[in-house]
Amino acid sequence: MNEKNYGKILLIDDEPSILFSLSSLLTKQKYICDTAESGAAGIKAFQQKPEEYDIVITDFMMPGIDGMQVLKTIRQTRPEACVIMLTAHGNTENAVNAMKEGAYDYLSKPYENEKLKIVVRQAFERINLERENVILKSQLNCEYKFENIIGNSDKMNVVFDKISKVAVTDATVLITGESGTGKELVAKAIHFNSGRK
Questions:
Q1: At 29, which CATH number?
Q2: 87-113 average pLDDT score
Q3: N or C end: fewer C-beta atoms under 10 angstroms in the chain?
């Protein structure tokens, strides 16, 4: 039986034991994990395939390129990716700075396994909601385009012309007609093709 994986995570830490621990914990939760043992290696891995990683978990303090530089690079490359910071040297100022730069969360080492699992699950839920939102908005915008109103008679062409003209104005519009003639469809087409949204 093929088990479903829930997403792909890039783990960045200069301590191999931490990478092993994180990878083991998250793999058991059905996440796919890739690892990098430095900030530079993590950035390189992310930039090679940024669309594959929804979440990056990175150590804050690493030699060379530190976690803040990793965070900034990832946010520039793919702003919708969630970056979770881990640190053994936690202080409020570092946490505030990381959150200002766009970190999703900031956890102190040693981290609690349950807390980390919850944070990762919530990050994936947020990512999935944002994706659904984008899809629904694009479907909504497509649904009410003028092209979706069926008809090609001379009278319908007059209606399309009037809809196009009124949609760009701020005028109040009264739509009349018999039941089932498409008044609601015309009203939505005017609304979604205007600045009234």
A1: 3.40.50.2300
A2: 88
A3: N
